[in-house]
Every structure is written in structure tokens, then in C-alpha cells.
Amino acid sequence: MKLLTHNLLSSHVPGLRPGGGFPLRIELGHPSELPPEPLPNYEADEEFLRRLHHVLLEVEVLEGSLQCPDSGRRFPISRGVPNMLLTEDEA
Amino acid sequence: RQPGMAEAAGDAGLGPAAAQEGAELAAVIGATVPTGFEQTAAEEVQEKLGSASRISRDRGKIYFEVPARSLPQVHRLRSVDNLFVVVQEFKDYQFKENKEDALKDLEDLVKKLPWTNPLKVWELNNSLKKKKTKRKKHNLQNPASREKLSGGGEEGGADQNNTNDQEDCAQNPVAVEPTGGQDTENPQGVTSRNGVEEEEDNEQSDVKVEVQASAESGAKAGDGQTGEGEAKVLRFRVTCNRAGDKHSFTSNEAARDFGGAVQEHFQWKADMTNFDVEVLLNIHNNEVVVGIALTEESLHRRNITHFGPTTLRSTLAYGMLRLCDPQPTDIIVDPMCGTGAIPIEGAAEWPYCYHIAGDNSPQAVKRAANNICSLLRKNESKDSSSALGVPLDIVQWDICNLPLRTGSVDIVVTDMPFGKRIGSKKKNWDLYPACLMEMGRICTPGTGRAVLLTQDKKCFAKALSRVGHIWRRAQTVWVNVGGLHAAVYLLRRTWERAEERRPFW
């Protein structure tokens, strides 16, 4: 799973408050190489853009999980594919 | 198998020198495309080759002229299934009413046709083929090879990777390139019967046949070699497609007699399995086109008895994607991706968009992941062994409850389950409205669009009528998928915003 995909994913556990499913928390121990916030004028900062592109499109989570911020429900990621299926009881 | 250097007695001028000359020629190329997507293919030809196309009334074919040296680019067209070089076209051929006379005319035609230049183009094409990597390797650029996306073994995959004609000759005399097990279009003749055409009721349509010279009942695979003794004689066969209700002969008869005359004229050897030259005789009412094949015919499986997941052919996937006019940075989602044909085509041809494939079936997800990895590994510009950097991702999800943020997707493109093959008609009745709702929720209001392929047109129309507040029908393309009448719908998302995850807003 790439970071850009994570940007579009939201938890769909029933009963959440609006917006409560986003963003899912990625669980793994890898630190990010990006600054916590974009610097002003980031569009012109070639070095920053390279690192951003790398993190968005060239880094994949292969094993780990995504955690729903409100409910805590975890969705596993295995071999790079997140499994976002709800169980029969949940849905 | 391809005797690039062979010289046929009676037709001097074949060989490497001819190939060189061939490059300077203007070639009229005929291309078969998925029916319904002729216009799309014409646009691609205009865009990539700069040539205008004529769309034939014989559905599923377009014609365009290019310098023969452009052949490599022609082979890289994504919307085209097969290619041939035109020897001659007759817009209004008058067939004699009497069968013997009509067939005699076809025989007499052979020696009057301008074979020389098309044969040079064919020769040039052969020399290109030899340069290509072996067909068994996955080649991202060759649509036919990309068809090898396999749905696994369930489509009877055993004979699909078979590029050795010899094994085919027993049950399937057509030496073909497999199309990876998806439902292919019917042979042209049958397609025209199903199509929305002028003469629908009385039309006879014959399937492709091959000529057999009377004496030699097709040189069997055993001798395989192209050379027998000193002279290397070219081997050929004739394939005839005939459609129309006013002909006094069948395609079998036409192929046989035309082939006899071809053999007489060139002194080639008729061989229906191990041929070098495939002569095409396409008859569509009064339109007659004689051509020479430049690609091996797609495998048209006559007895499609397999049931199970089907893989969309990549030319159709390409046509569908083109229809929604993807723009750089568009997010494109296939929420029922199956083995991933559409997202793979998308990532290959529109690399400045971001493609997400999803399915609820673990097998589909696994297969899609494998297909993506193995195909995109061959991408020349990447030397890594995974799909890193390729704008494509896979998620396992439920189409009726997508884990995607509202309004976050620009384009939804998918092959909806066909009632007959997956699920049932009744299931579609419930599934379709739920799908359309969810697809409407995730899609960007105003600018978003969807391109959906379905065979269950009634169910789809009904479902669409209930979601008029989010989707408007913009265009419909009638297509033929594995002999079934299907439709591709282009929908535009209205400006109405979706509420967050309400079941029936």
C-alpha cells in the first residue's frame, strides 16, 4: 500500500461520527523522512519534492495494519494489500 | 516458423532487399478493434500516427494509411486487436448470381491484384517480428501478449501459452496467439449477425475457414521445417469471412477457390497450420477486402464452455479508459477489478494518473497483484523488481461499502458482473443500485465520471433511473463481449454532493 492510497482511505465501521474514520493510523516502526509540515514555498523546493514523491509513490507498506481513529478497529495489511472487508457482524 | 528469407518461385523480390524497399512504401493498414470502439481506435491512430482512419461498415474494422516504416508504432497501438495490410479494396463488388460464376470471378481476381507492394510490407513486418522479444515473455507493449493475464487455471489455461503450432493442429487448426482466456469476440461473421445492422434477418454469416489444397491435405506439423530440399517455398492459407444475404456461395467455397488461384499464381504451398502468409478475404455484402495478415489471428475459441471469472481483453479496457478522458493527476478506481486488466492498462498508458484496483475476492486480489508485479517488472524504465514508483495500488474491499473518502475519486471504471456468469440476474437487481450509489458517493461532484461495462442492460437502466440525482448518462457504446451483447456506459457525476455514508440519501 502506498501513502497516496492511504490518503484516500477511510474507516467504514458503522456508527462512527462524520469524518471519524479518517485518517487511519498506519502502524509500523518506520520513521518518516519528511518534516512535520510543509515549508512555505515548498513547490519550489526540489529536494523536498523529491522526498515527497518518494514517500507518496515509492514507499510501500507491505506488512502492518491501519487503525480506525475512532473505533480502534484494525485492518490488516499483508503483502502490500490492505484488507478493508468488514465482518458479517460489523456490517 | 517464419522463413523471412524465403523466396517464392514466381514472385521474385522477397527477402531483405525487399524489406528495405518496403520501408519506403505507403501501406494501407486494416485493423480489427473491439466492435463499438472504432471511433476510439481512430482517435488513437490520429494521435499516435497522425493518420486519419476510415471506419468500415463491416463493424470492428478501421483502415488508415501510414509509411511502412511506421509499422513498429502501429504494433504498439493499444486499441487494436489484429492488423493486416490491404492488397485491394472493392467498395461495390458485383457478385454474379450464379455460384459457379461468382466463384470463378474470385479466382480470376487473384492474378489482377496488386500483390507486390503489400508483400513487401509483409516482408518488412516479418523482419520486425524477428527482432521482438520472444512472445512468451510478458511484453507490456504488445496488446496480444498482455492478454496473457491469466485468471489462473480456471479458464483452461493449459493451451493458452502454447505458441507451438504443432500442438494445436489436432483440435484447433488455427495457429494462433492465445488471448489469455478471456471471452473473445466471435469470429467476424458471427459478430455481424448479432450486430445492429441493416440486413439482420436473412444474414448468413460463416465463421472463419482455412483453405485446403486438394492434393495436400495441409502439410502436417511433422515436417515443421520451412525448407524442403533446395527451394524454400512459402506456405500460405486463406481465411475468408463472409457476411450478407445475397451471396450465392459460402465462405468455405470462396476460401477454397480463391486459395486455389493463389496457389496457382504464386506456386506457394497451402498449409493451414504452418503457414507463412495468411491471405484474408473479407466479404461484407458488396464490400470486398483482400489483405495479408500482419499479426497472428487472436484465438477465437469456438466452444467457450468455461464458466468462471473472465478477464477483460486489454483492447477493450483501453477503449473504456479512453472514453473517460483521463487527465494528469486524476484518481482512477476500479472497484471490481477481477484480475486487474483495467488498472494495469491504465497505469501503463496513463502514468500521470493514480490507479487503485479493488475487489472483495481474495483470489482476485492475489491474482491482480501477481499480474501487476510480473507485467510491470518488464517496464523498461524501471529496474526494480516490484511495482514501486508505478502509480497503482490494490485494496481488498466490498463494492457496496467502499473504504474511500466521499468525493475523493475522479473516475470509476469497471466491468460490472454479468448476470449469467457471476452471481445471478436476481443478485444484480440488488447489487447494481447499491454499486451506483457507492460509486456516486466516492466520485467528485461535477467533474467526476464513470465508465461501466455491463451485459445486464435492463437491470442497469433500471438502477440508473433511481440514481438520476447523482449520475447522468452521457454516452453509450454497444459492444460485443464473448458473443454477448454488452454496453459501455459513460456517466457524468452531477454537482449534487453526497452525504457522508448514509445508506439511501
Could you explain the architecture of this structure?
Chain A: GO terms for molecular function: protein heterodimerization activity. Chain A: InterPro entries: Trm112, Trm112-like. Chain A: One of its GO terms (biological process) is rRNA (guanine-N7)-methylation. Chain A: This is Multifunctional methyltransferase subunit TRM112-like protein. The complex is a heterodimer of chains A (91) and B (505). Chain A is 19% helix and 15% strand. Chain A contains 2 helices and 4 strands. The longest helix of chain A has 13 residues, at 46-58. The radius of gyration of chain A is 15 Å and the shape is elongated. Chain A starts with a helix and ends in a 9-residue tail after the last strand. The model of chain A has no long low-confidence stretch (mean pLDDT 85). Chain B contains 14 helices and 16 strands. The termini of chain B are far apart. The A-B interface holds A 1-2, 4-5, 8-12, 18-19, 21-22, 57-60, 75, 79-86, 91 and B 331, 354, 356, 360, 365, 369, 386, 388-389, 391, 393-398, 401-405, 408-409, 500-501.
Write the SSE topology.
The complex is a heterodimer of chains A (91) and B (505).
Chain A: H1 3-6, E1 25-27, H2 46-58, E2 64-67, E3 74-78, E4 81-82
Antiparallel strand pairs in A: 1-2, 2-3, 3-4
Chain B: H1 16-23, E1 26-32, H2 38-49, E2 53-55, E3 61-67, H3 71-75, E4 82-90, H4 99-109, H5 116-131, H6 143-146, H7 165-168, H8 188-194, E5 204-206, E6 235-244, H9 251-266, E7 269-270, E8 277-284, E9 287-293, H10 314-323, E10 331-334, H11 341-349, E11 354-359, H12 362-376, E12 392-396, E13 411-415, H13 425-442, E14 449-454, H14 457-466, E15 471-481, E16 484-493
